Amino acid sequence: RALAGFSKDTNTISEIIISRNSSELVQLNNMYQKMFNKVLVDQISYSRSVSSHYRSLVTSILTGFRQLENETDPIQAKQHASLLYWAGEGKRGTDERLINKVMSYESYAQLKIILEEYKKQFGKTLEQSLRKELSGDLLRIHLGIVDYIQSPVAFYAKQLEYAMRGYGTDDASLIRILISRSEFDLENIKREYERRFERTLMSAIQADTAGSYKTALLAILG
Which residue windows are coiled coil (predicted)? Predict the structure, then answer.
């Protein structure tokens, strides 16, 4: 549903594509075409309701050309850390295309090394630099990638909080995350949520939902 209404729900789209590997993204593309008789990448490319750099990044990720997880190169990580700095905070203006290229092509294992090398070389985190150089949906998806690289559990804890924050609840995201993680790392996500937000995930859901819907979500939590 979020992918069908691309312009209206970029947060959900970002969460979905950040947390899927290349083979899962291929399946996602195939399923979208089967359900809507449209090519997902084309739909995103044609959208004018988000920035061109966000569209470009999402399209690159969805094509599934990210490197394999077991391929890491410490020497190249140093070079890419430098590239990211000089594409952003190290120059006047920002080269969003170069930042997108590195963040969409390198494996998460390689990006983790790049993040570590970035801090070693420049005395600050890539997240700190991105916050200075980017904005809007493009900033949010890059920060999501950084979060997921550092800790998928923390990434999902934050996504659950975002789904319940403010007026109204993002029910689709809440259900999707709880069900998809229930047989994997939900217990760890619950602990991380409590550590990070100083309340239990169960108490947050109890306060934010009602009726049989609340009962079903609490049953998933266990």
Answer: none
Domains, the chain, in order of start with CATH, read 6-62 (1.10.220.10), 74-150 (1.10.220.10), 152-221 (1.10.220.10)
User: Residues near 30 by Cβ (< 8 Å), separated by ≥ 6?
Assistant: none
d(CA 135, CA 51): 10
Per-residue pLDDT of the chain (222 residues; tens, 9 = 90+): 555 555 457 888 899 999 998 889 989 999 989 998 988 888 887 777 788 999 999 999 998 778 877 779 999 999 999 999 999 999 999 999 999 999 999 999 999 999 999 999 999 999 999 999 999 999 999 999 999 999 999 999 999 999 998 778 889 899 999 999 999 999 999 999 999 999 999 999 999 999 999 999 999 998
